[in-house]
Amino acid sequence: MPASSVSHAPLASTAEQEAYLHLQQALRLGRYKPGERLIPEDIAAEIGMSRMPVREAFRRLAADGLVKLRPNRGCVVAGLTLDEIHEIFEIRSVLEGLAVRLAMPRMEAETFEELDRMLERMERAGQTGSSDWVLRHQEFHGFIYGLSGRPKLIRQITGLHVMIEPYMRIWFDYAVKPLSAREEHQQLIEALRSGDARHAEAVMQEHIIETASLIAGFASPGQG
Predict the structure, then answer these.
(1) Which domains does the chain have, with CATH numbers?
(2) Which pLDDT value is given to residue 81?
(3) Which of 4, 73, 118, 196 is packed most tightly, with the most Cβ within 10 A?
(4) Per residue in 137-171, pLDDT tens?
(5) What percent of the chain has pLDDT over 90?
């Protein structure tokens, strides 16, 4: 019997991870709306698994702040209030500013070549109206804070990006994207090129804080 229990553990873990990633992606893309109840039976049938891994995925998503587990209501999509949106961007500004400062010694000529390429990809996505712009934007920021070499910091920042992604997509879909978007990111690259860690940290913080008001203006957050 011990052998049987051990053999099932990896399968359960894999199923839970599959359910978690499936739901996380759906939430990031805005497939489910704030306040919407997630039915484990429906999701399990959609993915092709039992309810148990889905329920375990709900717990992980609740720890991420993406859903809420409520008595008698089950799992409900967590919307962000305007204050919460601003708070997330405030935290992002501090953490990504710190990541920039830590990343500066690791930046080389190839780093800036890659950032230039990423900016070009972001710009092309924006010009075609593709929502890939949001993904390219995340890749740009992720490449920078990934250079910090601090796994816990990187995980925290990544989690904040996941929480805010549905609102970034709303902004991109319904707002006239500011023409200064490329210019702002170009200024950020130049700040990184300067070699002045404190200056680059300040530029990153300002860039993120300024984005908060733009996002909040087009989001329809839940009060949940």
Answers:
(1) 15-77 (1.10.10.10), 82-219 (1.20.120.530)
(2) 85
(3) 118
(4) 999 999 999 999 999 999 999 999 988 888 888 77
(5) 57
Q: Backbone phi, then psi, for 209, in 5-degree steps?
A: -60, -40
Given a cut of 70, whether residue 13 has pLDDT beyond it is no
**Are 19 and 53 a contacting pair, CB within 8 Å?**
yes
Long-range contacts of 110-119, Cβ-Cβ distance < 8 Å, separation of 24 or more:
111/147, 111/192, 112/189, 112/192, 112/193, 114/143, 115/140, 115/143, 115/144, 115/189, 115/192, 116/189, 118/143, 119/182, 119/185, 119/186, 119/189
Instruction: State the pLDDT at residue 3.
Output: 37
Predicted local distance difference test score (pLDDT) of residue 95: 98
99 CA to centre of own chain: 16
CA atoms lying within 13 Å on the CB side of residue 32: 21
Q: Which residues contact 181 (CB under 8 A, 6 or more apart)?
A: 126
From residue 83, alpha-carbon distances to 77, 142, 144, 174, 212 in Å are 18, 24, 27, 21, 10
Written as one letter, the residue type at 30 is G
